[in-house]
Amino acid sequence: MRVPRTTPASRSAVRLNPFACRAHWLLTVFLALPLSGRTETHDPDGEQRPAPEAEVELPAFPRTETLIPFTVSATTNNQFLIDSASLSVGSDGVTRYTLVIVSPSGARNVSYEGMKCATGERRLYALGRADETWVRARNDRWVRISNSTLNRHHAALFSEYFCPITVVQQTPEQMLETLRRGGHPALRVRP
Fold first, then answer.
1. All residues at 6 or more sequence positions from 155 whose CB lies less than 8 Å from its CB, including other chains
2. Beta-bridge partners for 69
3. Are the C-beta atoms of residues 80 and 62 closer than 8 Å to each other?
4. Cα 160 to chain center, whole Å?
5. Average pLDDT, stretch 32-57?
6. Is the predicted pLDDT of residue 43 greater than 60, yes or no?
7. CA contacts within 13 A on the Cβ side of 151
8. Mean per-residue pLDDT of the chain
9. pLDDT at 52 (0 to 100)
10. pLDDT at 38 over 60
11. Which CATH number fits domain 64-184: 3.40.50, 3.10.20, 2.60.120, 2.40.128?
12. What three-state secondary structure class fits 155?
């Protein structure tokens, strides 16, 4: 059997091989860096994702004397109320409130929710239990507010009370006054 002879050219190729491996590894790392940073703050379409919302502290359970009714539609027999003690506007621009819905038979649905006036979205944070405690919602994603017949109360809160067209209400006090008046005065038809 014959052993191949090494030439000076083949020896330098052997010496370059470790350098080529390191260069290939470095190139792979540098190409992966921009992609890994992008997945944290951007969605697959390249749009920037909003910063994750901090854990929201749940309010005290609503008391009857702090509930303010609001009108949704003449076609519903349910009563809709906002707990004035829980209404707040965070530094993130999210309006948070406790919503109470009472059916004609007396059944109550209590929920703690958030609304973004800038994007027309809402989020369910927690549901109230019969023992007047909260349970965090399993599906607490932001969803677009739709003006459908079912669940019209979100659209009413958005367009008539908390985020009326062309009027930005900054404070909970302004929103409470709007609830007490039955809607924002700028939306009323004048004769």
1. 145, 146, 147, 148
2. 81
3. no
4. 21
5. 55
6. no
7. 7
8. 78
9. 61
10. no
11. 2.40.128
12. helix
